[in-house]
Write the structure tokens for this entry.
Amino acid sequence: MLLLAVMMALHGEVRQGDVIRVAGPGEKARMNGRTVRLFEQTDGSRLGLMAVPATEKPGEYTLQVMDGGGNVVRSESVVVKDARFRKQNVVIGKETAALAPSEEETRLVRAFLAAETERRYWAEPLKLPLPGCMISPYGVERLHNGKPTGNVHGGWDQRGAKGTAVRAVAAGVVRIAKMFELRGGTVGIDHGQGLETMYLHMSGFAVAEGAEVKQGDVVGYVGSTGRSTGPHLHWSVFANGVAVNPAQWVRVGACAAAPAGGKKKK
Ligand SMILES: [Zn+2]
């Protein structure tokens, strides 16, 4: 990924689900009601991660960079293009569909996503949490048994047999390691300076809350806990609390589509 000024010059546009990397000088950036910090890097420069949500209306926006006093020091036009996310129906049982997060689950996830950590643990490139192919991409609008849910898929689903090790995509600090109602076995890692990842539906944990992890450390194991229809890993990348497209950070192959009415292949 490129810094904002370069990116705009080359492409002039971003897509829904992208992260715009905002370089200094400046201490904060603002776009369409969201404000993010530009954190100091080891070389003295500044960098902020401005997320474009999957549901952002395509069109032209203004990205403003502010100094410490809140004065706008730079202003750039950003064109958000339609990413043309697909719709996907999921067939699930009534009991599974009815699962809802507890107040505690909602509160803990919200607090995790709102946290701001000065230290940057993450470095690029990120690495996949497991080798399995992608079952379901980011941004698809979810229907349950044909009914729209109003939700878009906030991460990737990757294939994995029950018990497969799930690894941290980058270094960070484990802030959540809990068995939740909706998300099932969940690990949340704060990678610092606005980057976070979450791993859901796991059968168990390999880390405790507060643990510092390196890239590739095992954090848990694939399962089918919470609202899940079979063993797989759902994982998400968040930029300042907004779920963004992992495709901008790491690559994965899509699973081959199952032949309609055909037999299972090996
Ligand atoms: Zn998922």
